[in-house]
Amino acid sequence: MAVSTSFSGAKLEALLLKCCSSSSSTCSLRPSSNATTTHLSFSGKNRRTLIQSQRGTIRCEASGSEVLVDPSNNAKSVSALEQLKTSAADRYTKERSSIVVIGLSVHTTPVEMREKLAIPEAEWPRAIGELCGLNHIEEAAVLSTCNRMEIYVVALSQHRGVKEVTEWMSKTSGIPVAELCKHRFLLYNKDATQHIFEVSAGLDSLVMGEGQILAQVKQVVKVGQGVNGFGRNISGLFKHAITVGKRVRTETNIAAGAVSVSSAAVELALMKLPEASHGNARMLVIGSGKMGKLVIKHLVAKGCKKMVVVNRTEERVAAIREEINGVEIIYKPLSEMLTCVGEADVVFTSTASENPLFLKDDVKDLPLASEEVGGHRLFIDISVPRNVGSCISELESVRVYNVDDLKEVVAANKEDRLRKAMEAQVIIAEESKQFEAWRDSLETVPTIKKLRAYAERIRLAELEKCLGKMGDDITKKTQRAVDDLSRGIVNKLLHGPMQHLRCDGSDSRTLSETLENMHALNRMFSLETEISVLEQKIRAKVEQKP
């Protein structure tokens, strides 16, 4: 791979000095008597010498003696320093940027921590902007639901990228980095791709096969459109994940018989109530958004004929009432919420409030639940952040359940869903290969652009010479004809190389040949695409900092 010697800047100076500096040290450059070797020395208490051999490799040698600078060799010294700067940059430019997911989910993290990490949908664009402002992050996306908080990024450096994102999560949530590290999971490249595909397919959900997560993945793409930082790689990843989610549900029927978080909440409530009270228990639903509407529908499916719904406005409740016939749905405003709780046996909460709606002092003096349900009022809280404070569970007359308690319901029909999950994994493996091939094929895009630009520069220069020789009295028609002729020649000459730089990524042999062609063209025309593009990325990151 060709190496550009134009890479310079504060970041590389720091990298170089960090690699070889010592206290009270000075830097000196000198050429070896052997013309193929260049030395860069740092003298001081612990002097080290970096040696570049004819093969271009760098090694560091320690020495206790001082080395003096020969002023006559300054010109060669500058060249050696540039080469060393390039070698220091190599760790950024050798590897392709990595797709990384830093996540905390219901499988690894308690709800108390997840609710602190949760980012409302309206804040996703801001979060993407802040993440892409980090030194080693190019692209980003946020997937924040009641069961997971996952950050997807394209990182210039895996280690530094993870460190920066984790520190950002700590700063925004107030959770110490050490505590986050205990619960987070990290996945890179192919593993990260497989994970988001499994998430979209419903395989990683608390309720396997549930459909709501696919809608949430779609929302990530919808919100990300036009947001600076929701780039080609991350956008392509999430769009492909949507395709996988649809295909898995169509071909495996994994969603058949599966339950959503909302239906699991209804099932949990019925499990905790005496069976004889199922038809008469007084139901209250707080919030009529997507989750609340599903709770209402599942209650109706279980035979509930009457319920109270508390919401900020009546419009949504009225729309649900029109959609569901034969059921009495009573609307109450938020101002009457506590009164409604005092008259209910089971309370479902599913609002987007970032603060608890109920604390111990709010409900301790409320009337007891009816004797039919044993005098205990059930709070089923499926919101993250939670709507019901955990302190309420200290009251003898109350039972509080949150999303982490739904596992009891999910255990049912597990064997059938696992069989379908195995079928889904075959599809995911196939789709993962296709995505990785597509991402590999993106490597040729900068070469295509640079080759076209290179040819266009030559065309314009030669066109200008030609028109100059033809004099000032040529007609515009003739000028256009000559211009069209030059374009046609260039396009025909470029057609072959361009065809060999394009592939659909479905054939590994074709993809391999395409990448070989890319490197050959880079060498022939000195395009140095990979290096120069990454140089620009790192330069941009450096220039963003004060």
Description:
With 546 residues, this protein is α/β, with parallel strands linked by helices. The chain contains 20 helices and 14 strands. A 6-stranded parallel sheet has the order 11-10-9-12-13-14. A 4-stranded antiparallel sheet has the order 1-2-3-4, with helices on one face. A 4-stranded antiparallel sheet has the order 6-7-5-8, sandwiched between helices. Helix 17 (444-470) runs antiparallel to helix 18. The two termini are 33 Å apart.
Strand content bin: 5-15%
Question: Given the C-alpha coordinates, what overall shape results?
Answer: elongated
| Separation, N- and C-terminal Cα atoms | 33 Å
Cα-atom radius of gyration: 32 Å
Note poorly predicted spans: 1-69, 84-94, 529-534
User: Helix count?
Assistant: 20
Mean pLDDT: 79
What's the arrangement of strands in the largest beta sheet?
11-10-9-12-13-14
Total count of strands: 14
| Helical residues, percent | 40-55%
Give the class from helix and strand content and strand pairing: alpha/beta
Strand count, sense and barrel status of the largest sheet are: 6 strands, parallel
Spell out the key features of this protein.
single chain, 546 residues, alpha/beta, four-stranded antiparallel sheet, 14 strands, elongated, disordered N terminus
Topology, pairings included?
Elements: H1 10-20, E1 26-31, E2 38-43, E3 47-52, E4 58-63, H2 74-93, E5 98-105, H3 111-117, H4 124-132, E6 137-144, E7 148-155, H5 158-173, H6 177-183, E8 185-188, H7 190-201, H8 212-224, H9 232-252, H10 261-272, E9 283-286, H11 290-301, E10 306-310, H12 315-323, E11 328-332, H13 337-342, E12 346-349, H14 360-363, E13 377-381, E14 398-402, H15 407-410, H16 414-441, H17 444-470, H18 476-499, H19 508-525, H20 529-544
Parallel strand pairs: 9-10, 9-12, 10-11, 12-13, 13-14
Antiparallel strand pairs: 1-2, 2-3, 3-4, 5-7, 5-8, 6-7
